[in-house]
Amino acid sequence: MKKEALYIDRTNPIIMVSKLEKSFGSLQVLTGISFHLYRGENIVVLGRSGSGKSVLIKLMIGLLQPNKGSIRILGKEVQELGVKELQELRLKIGFLFQGSALYDSMTVRENLAFPLVRNKRNLTRTQIDQAIVEVLENVGLLQTINQMPAQLSGGQRKRIAIARTLILQPEIILYDEPTAGLDPVTCMEINDLINEVQKKYKASSVIITHDLTCAKTTGDRVALIVDGKFGYEGSFADVFKTENREANLFYDYNFINEK
């Protein structure tokens, strides 16, 4: 499936990453990543395991500090923010964990209410309930509102995790391996949902994955990490029409028959 083009404001980068480097001891993970993310755009970041994809996300939300380079998000230099300012910025950034990270002891309703109660203390019970119903309808799972996470399928848990991300109405969403561990049909449903979220919420997203179907379906732009930096960047077709061995190995591993 080819990604449907949406309006993207390419005059308005909301994330600007410049010459980003990160090492752990003698292990150099990122060696100079630079990119812009524009309002309304999905960028997919591909790479082998250990290539630094998840490290990049952690740097972007301030969980790790870079050795060199800068990260500017929504006009704020992430490395320069204090604890309170960083927390305020994080409220504008939704993060979808690879394992969904739902609280097993809470119902779906309680899982979705938790971020609202914690971060928007001025909301009434009625407003919280309305917000919960709205996001569950948007992910097609209103019927699960009183169920426990253990009663849900893997795809349903992923959808609820997306709903919990949306409930704070973030301007940016970071997806960490959104289709990992799911069957092919459910993967396509999650890919479609990511596109629906982009269109309905006008969200800008960074999607970390090694799933090329996800990349082709959801990415307005694709970047492949090679040797700690973006070795190839552009449309899906542009990145994988190259004769570069690294790109072709990655492509062949995903068992896609046509470029």
Written overview of the protein:
This protein is α/β, with parallel strands linked by helices. It is built from nine helices and ten strands. It has a single domain, classed as Rossmann fold, CATH 3.40.50. It is globular and about 55 Å long.
Give me a quick take on this structure.
The chain has about 260 residues and is α/β, with parallel strands linked by helices.
Descriptive key words:
Rossmann fold; 259 residues; single chain; 10 strands; alpha/beta
Could you give the topology of this structure?
Layout lengths: L8 E16 L2 E13 L2 E5 L6 H8 L7 E6 L2 E2 L5 H8 L2 E4 L11 H12 L5 H14 L15 H13 L5 E5 L7 H18 L2 E6 L2 H7 L2 E6 L2 E6 L1 H5 L4 H9 L6
Parallel strand pairs: 3-8, 3-9, 6-7, 7-8
Antiparallel strand pairs: 1-2, 1-4, 4-5, 9-10
Helix pairs in contact: 4-5, 5-6, 6-7
SSE string, helices as H and strands as E: EEEHEEHEHHHEHEHEEHH
Reported by name, the CATH topology is: Rossmann fold
Q: Which class of secondary structure composition applies to the elements? A: alpha/beta
Tell me the number of helical segments per DSSP (H or I, 4 or more residues long): 9
Radius of gyration: 18 Å
CATH class: Alpha Beta
Number of domains: 1
Global outline = globular
Give helix % range: 25-40%
Give the beta-strand count: 10
Average pLDDT metric? 89
How would a crystallographer describe the biggest sheet? 6 strands, mixed
The spatial strand order of the largest sheet comes to 6-7-8-3-9-10
**C-alpha termini separation:** 12 Å
CATH superfamily: P-loop containing nucleotide triphosphate hydrolases
- Second rung of CATH, namely the architecture: 3-Layer(aba) Sandwich
Which percent band covers the strand fraction? 25-35%
